From TrEMBL:
One annotated Gene Ontology cellular component of this protein: apoplast
Subcellular localization, as worded in the UniProt entry: Secreted, Extracellular space, Apoplast
Protein name as annotated: laccase
Biological role: Lignin degradation and detoxification of lignin-derived products.
Taxonomic classification: Eukaryota, Viridiplantae, Streptophyta, Embryophyta, Tracheophyta
Names of the cofactor(s): Cu cation
Pfam families: Cu-oxidase, Cu-oxidase_2
Length: 488
């Protein structure tokens, strides 16, 4: 039984994503908002009725009262049957740099050979923070413990996430319970979810919640720090929030240490014997399907690179090109699969988020540099590896996963990239379901969800009796053309 004074379990979801923003002056200028409804209205003058265009039912329309330096937002709704245009006499309408013309952006990218500079900023629940006039506020009560559900809904950036002055206890990742551990910083990859317990045990005040990119590759990203506020109940809004200490943007050591702490809550049902071993390299070389080759998949996709080279060497001396064609690899139904994903320095190294549709998998190993099967296999965690549906292949490194191919459906691993158009293609085709007499057991090959766990934090017992067991829902939104499919 939970002591009355210990906690109040509450579930809060924090979305960290991207939004295009308009900068407002940082002065004391006011923000004025108006709503204009354009309608046709019949008026009678000199004994004749005539429909005229009105704004909010008036002609002339409403007066806008502003002071020099104010920012004005006017929402216009056209309720007439004709297209309308509105012009502001004597006022300069500065260009919307965050909403530029698509064709102009494409032309600039083609001219430079690189994507145009990004103007998007990170947000927490859609709000970027105090640098702009929009900040998400999370109100808490002293002495209570809260369950925060954190989702990285960004496209490409791994993110650091921290709360000033407060520790977080990680209890669940990707809807799977883990051995609880306490940290002051989360590392979360696009598409991943992390549930943490946070106790409001500090002096009542306002504390910044910070999220910013983990930049471990020479790729241009928007590096603004998104901020929200954790505010104790009864504390006035005029109180200056305490600022968190965020890790260095390239703190690879912290990320590596954090990932090693992720362990399944119980002994995992990870495949100990492997029927099929696959080794795939990931790079920025243009994928073959952009040549728009017609036809059906061929079934000769190699289990490993046709040519072995120093995948992460600097400088990269290999002269390699992709082959035209779309190929897949056959995987027997209910077979156990080990897939090693190796980042390469083709064009550039980068951390690649990787999501497997239709499956959870066990992350049995990860490292920096080239995968060495003679040394790295002995380091695999085959006892309690974390069970996930989304991972990040380290920059200039590798990740190994294991799973059972018991889902006879078209499922596709995907990653993502800054311009959403680069990646790798390597479909799998499973043998027909009829080819095996085995009847699939739902969840076989994965650790089943136990009863809600009993967790002790700093001498306090936490019970999850009122919480629903985590569902195996997927975070939708990863869009890189890193297409690998398992077909039953």
């Amino acid at each position: 039984m939970v002591p009355q004074t210990s906690l109040l379990m509450r579930s809060i979801v924090l979305f960290i994503g991207f939004i295009a923003l308009s900068l407002f002056p940082a002065s004391e200028a006011a923000l004025k908002k108006y709503q204009f409804d354009v309608v046709l209205k019949n008026v009678s003058r000199l004994c004749h009725a005539k429909p005229i265009v009105t704004v909010n039912g008036k002609f002339p329309g409403p007066t806008i009262y502003v002071t020099e330096g104010d920012s004005v937002i006017i929402n216009v709704t056209n309720n007439a049957q004709y297209n309308m245009s509105i012009h502001w006499h004597g006022l300069k309408q500065f260009r919307e740099w965050w909403n530029g013309d698509v064709e102009e952006a494409v032309k600039k990218g083609n001219k430079l050979g690189l994507p145009p500079a990004m103007s998007d900023a990170h947000t927490i629940n859609g709000k970027p923070g105090p640098l702009f006039p929009y900040t998400h506020t999370l109100e808490v009560e002293s002495g209570q413990t809260y369950l925060l559900r954190v989702i990285n809904a960004a496209l490409n950036d791994e993110l650091f996430f921290t709360i000033a002055g407060h520790n977080m206890t990680v209890v669940e990742i990707d809807a799977v319970y883990v051995k609880p551990f306490t940290t002051n910083t989360l590392i979360i990859t696009p598409g991943q979810t992390t549930n943490v317990l946070v106790t409001a045990d500090r002096s009542p005040g306002r504390y910044f919640i910070g999220a910013r990119a983990f930049m471990d590759a020479p790729i241009a990203v928007d590096n603004k720090t998104a901020m929200a506020i954790l505010q104790y109940k009864g504390v006035p809004n005029t109180t200056i929030p305490i600022t968190p200490k965020l890790p260095a943007r390239n703190d690879t050591e912290l990320v590596t240490s954090y990932n090693k702490k992720l362990r399944s809550l119980n002994r995992a049902n990870v495949p100990l014997t492997v029927d099929r071993k696959l080794f795939y390299t990931i790079d920025w070389a243009p994928p073959a399907h952009y040549y728009k080759i017609k036809g059906v998949f061929s079934t000769d996709f190699p289990d490993r690179p046709p040519k072995v080279f120093n995948y992460t060497g600097v400088p990269l001396t290999a002269n390699l090109r992709t082959n035209v064609g779309t190929r897949l690899s056959r995987v027997a139904f209910n077979s156990t699969v080990e897939l090693v994903l190796q980042d390469t320095n083709l064009l550039s190294v980068e951390s690649h988020p990787f999501h497997l549709h239709g499956y959870n998998f066990f992350v049995v190993g990860s490292g920096v540099g080239n995968f060495d099967k003679t040394k790295d296999l002995s380091k695999f965690n085959l006892v309690d590896p974390p069970e996930r549906n989304t991972i990040a292949v380290p920059t200039g490194g590798w990740t190994a996963i294991r799973f059972r191919a018991d889902n006879p459906a078209l499922v596709s691993p995907k990653g993502d990239s800054p311009n959403n158009n680069n990646g790798f293609g390597a479909p799998f085709q499973g043998e027909p379901l009829q080819a095996s007499s085995h009847k699939p057991n739902i969840g076989e090959g994965f650790s089943s969800h136990p009863d809600p766990p009993h967790i002790t934090i700093e001498g306090q017992d936490l019970e999850f009796a009122n919480l629903e067991a985590p569902s195996r829902s997927l975070v939708v939104g990863l869009q890189m053309r890193a297409s690998v499919a398992f077909i039953g």
